[in-house]
Specification:
heterodimer, A: about 450 residues, 9-stranded mixed β-sheet, two-stranded antiparallel sheet, 11 strands, B: mainly beta, about 5% helix, extended, binds zinc ion
Chain lengths: ~450, ~170
């Protein structure tokens, strides 16, 4: 039984409040030969500067930045070490300090957390967070191999050379332990790919049926192609500020709370431990469940996600996440990892995760809709950008600007697409706060961020 | 030795032109070939990989009396993460039960097994972790007993030198 040290459970505390005032992103595509990487980053950065109703000009904002946190998943994909220097120079931000962040699939979230730390500590009053990935220099199977080198090269990579094969055993285990049907899994893919239809930047939007998902090609049993996210080229940026700068720049700033957790890279190495309880959970409530499954987190859950939520909810003073959060953006790289996370972050108690989907809570106009952006399944997974972009999508929802960002013809034109005649607004009505999860496989790093309306 | 640095030079291009992969009026995409071999050490875990070639499944155990866990590790690790003591090698039973599984249909480039195949996670008596491997024959079911087979002839010197069959 693994136990945490007393000091390990201290809840992080910002030394001063942290705010997000702007976000930007590129369209997301499988293949993006029209632009070099730094040109893509500039595109998302300029959207951040120009399209967020900020009260200073882009040049004035540029002159206010003191720090940059950059997220990039893999040098393999960019085939360029020290992209951070190239991009920082391209954005004209020398000689300001910047840090390159790498935490696998959670890279974007980790870059956001790093930006928060710069603001909270006083290193900066105004910090840029930018993430990117260009996964289109290699073919898909080579890309899958690259990603699988994020699994343990000695004991895991050779066992599949594709990440779906490290999540799929969890899916089978979860199905048996917590009574998850493949129809529920497929509904996640249908939902998120469907929501991507409203997003001009989406890479693989589509109105699919459960049958189509289940009949799509098998990647690693039971995960089908339509249950797996895409490889993407694209970028996203966010602007973080201290309180004074936030209100100087924006009439609609959003306050940010954020924490992270980690766990063994190899699922194999997970040993049994006590479940760190969320504010609304009672000691003893999982005794029966643990009697059956024998170990926690086993292959069913993610300690990293649980620990990140454990800290972030306490930082933000959230007691009951399902009641108090108005929307969430989860890391749906695979249908199963999305579902596993529902328990970790308390949208349902452990063992009842499928009910978050089946009850309708997860849908638009449900109690706490998830991935209205289209998520990783429908819209993008340009890995280093993902956790930044998810924050942007929650941010725009809180500002009541979903319709402008997703519905204005300008963005459909930018993406080179026709706005669908049946385009549907997914703006949540009067949202107060939302959450996003950034997750590295197989639950090695997870960040949990909470954005709260601050005007 | 050349004394070229003392004089002027005429230089020839000796590379191989990469060629264009894709092009339009607006952009060129060039080929950018990459091919390397890394030399990778197994370090203190070498006894594990040598063990596979000798038909033995070797794990490490923390035997420090001060340690709160004294876990047995497979994959092994040379240093205990709980107390930081050096662990000791122990041979563990080359049999166990299937804890989880998947059938791998679409694998990444360079896959060394014929696809599709069953990848399995094996729970072994006395081991605190769960060990990933592949099933050489049969169909997995959770809880199914399996035993290890070792590639002692013509080993690959990798984790693929162990696989499992129904017991
Ligand atoms: Zn120890």
């Amino acid at each position: 039984m693994i136990k945490f040290g007393e000091g390990n459970l201290r809840v992080p505390q910002w030394s001063r409040r942290v705010f997000m005032v702007a976000g930007g992103c590129t369209p997301f595509r499988k293949y993006f030969p029209e632009y070099k990487l730094e040109e893509l980053v500039m595109m998302g950065y300029k959207m951040m500067l120009e399209d967020n109703d900020l009260k200073l000009s882009p040049k004035e904002i540029k002159d206010s930045i003191q720090y940059a946190a950059y997220g990039e998943f893999a040098d393999h994909f960019q085939d360029q070490l020290l992209c951070e220097a190239k991009i920082h120079d391209y954005l004209g931000l020398d000689p300001l300090w910047n840090t390159g962040i790498k935490t696998g699939g959670a890279t974007g979230g980790a870059a956001m957390l790093n930006g928060c730390m710069a603001i909270a500590s006083g290193y900066a009053d105004c910090a840029l967070v930018s993430g990117w990935e260009r996964m289109d220099e290699v073919d898909t199977r080579t890309g899958n191999f690259y990603i699988s080198t994020a699994a343990c090269k000695d004991f895991e990579t050779r066992m599949g050379r594709i990440y779906s094969s490290y999540y799929a055993p969890m899916a089978n285990r979860f199905a048996e332990a917590y009574n998850l049907s493949e129809v529920t899994r497929a509904k996640v893919a249908v939902k998120n790919r469907g929501y991507a239809m409203s997003n001009p930047n989406a890479q693989q939007p589509g109105h699919h049926t459960v049958e189509e998902v289940l009949e799509s090609r098998m990647s690693a049993y039971p995960l089908r192609f339509l249950e797996c996210c895409a490889m993407t080229a694209g970028s996203a940026s966010a602007l973080l500020c201290n309180e004074e700068m936030a209100y100087k720049l924006s009439d609609h700033p959003v306050e940010l709370f954020m924490a992270g957790g980690t766990h063994t890279l190899r699922v194999a190495d997970r040993r049994h431990m006590d479940i760190p309880l969320l504010p609304n959970e009672k000691p003893g409530m999982y005794d029966e469940l643990l009697k059956e499954s024998g170990r926690w987190p086993g292959f069913e859950s993610f300690l990293a996600a649980r620990f990140a939520a454990y800290l972030a909810y306490r930082m933000a003073g959230i007691h009951d996440p399902l009641e108090e959060l108005d929307l969430v953006e989860l890391h749906d790289a695979f249908t199963i990892s999305d579902i596993q996370t529902y328990g970790d972050i308390g949208l349902r108690p452990y063992g009842q995760e499928p009910d978050y989907i089946e009850s309708g809570d997860a849908y638009f106009e449900g109690k706490c809709p998830s991935n209205l952006s289209g998520g990783l399944l429908g819209t993008m997974h340009a890995v280093g950008a993902t956790g930044v972009w998810q924050a942007c999508e929650v941010f725009w929802q809180l500002q009541d600007r979903y319709d402008y960002i997703h519905g204005d013809k300008k963005w459909w034109d930018r993406a080179g697409k026709e706005k669908p005649a049946d385009w549907k607004s997914l703006q949540v009505k009067d949202p107060k706060q939302g959450l996003w999860i950034s997750h590295a496989g197989v639950g090695s790093h997870v960040t949990c961020g909470i954005l709260r309306k601050a005007w | 030795m050349s004394k070229a640095y003392e004089g002027s030079l005429t230089t020839k291009y000796i590379g191989t032109p990469s060629g264009l992969f894709d092009q339009s009026d607006d952009f060129w995409v060039i080929n950018f070939p990459r091919s390397f071999t890394h030399q990778h050490t197994y370090g203190l875990l070498t006894p594990f990989f040598r063990g596979l070639t000798e038909g033995k499944l070797m794990a490490t155990k923390c035997t420090n009396p001060e340690c709160s866990e004294n876990s047995t590790w497979l994959p092994p690790r040379a240093d205990c993460p709980d107390c930081y003591a050096r662990t000791e090698w122990v041979q563990v039973p080359s049999e166990g039960k299937i804890y989880a599984y998947t059938m791998l249909d679409y694998a990444g480039i360079g896959i060394e097994m014929e696809t599709p195949y069953w990848q399995i996670d094996v729970q072994i008596e006395g081991v605190d972790t769960i060990f990933k491997g592949w099933l050489k024959q049969g169909k997995p079911v959770t809880g199914m007993p399996v035993k290890a087979e070792f590639r002692t002839e013509d080993p690959t010197y990798t984790i693929l030198d162990i696989c499992w069959v129904p017991k």
